[in-house]
Design a protein that fits this description.
Helix content is about 85%, strand content about 0%. α5 packs antiparallel against α6. The longest helix has 28 residues.
Length: about 140
């Protein structure tokens, strides 16, 4: 397995277990503290790994805007994710997080590239949305 594939598999395993790992923490640890810790550790690691491209992106005004948008997402997501895990539970929180990803990805693809999703995507995403809705009942 090459380095990129190994990194992808390892990050998937780590990301897929974060909700469960957070649920095993003592009850007095707040979701904000968990989200802040993961954001801090993850942010430092990501910057260390991608320091050279990140610095060059900061020097390009067009790329800087997208870098800041991405940084905002990195800040907001873990705080919202662990708060949702605390309120909804690990199973429902993970299903909603994983099921909503394709919906948002297609929306952004449509909004920026004016490309509509295909029929297979619509059918699969509709099934995911119905499943998420049933879990929320």
């Amino acid at each position: 397995m090459n380095r990129a594939a190994l990194a992808l598999v390892l990050s998937s395993i780590l990301w897929g277990t974060t909700g469960t790992a957070a649920s095993l923490l003592p009850a007095d640890v707040s979701p904000i503290a968990v989200g802040s810790a993961t954001m801090g550790v993850g942010g430092v690691l990501l910057f260390g790994i991608s320091m050279r491209p990140a610095i060059s992106a900061l020097q390009d005004p067009a790329a800087r805007r997208w870098l800041l948008v991405g940084a905002g997402g990195v800040v907001v997501y873990p705080l919202a994710f662990y708060g949702a895990m605390n309120l909804a539970g690990v199973a429902i929180g993970n299903v909603v997080a994983l099921g909503s990803g394709p919906v948002f990805a297609a929306f952004f693809e449509w909004a920026w590239e004016r490309r509509r999703p295909g029929r297979v995507w619509v059918a699969c995403t509709a099934t995911a949305i119905v499943g998420i809705g049933l879990l929320a009942l």
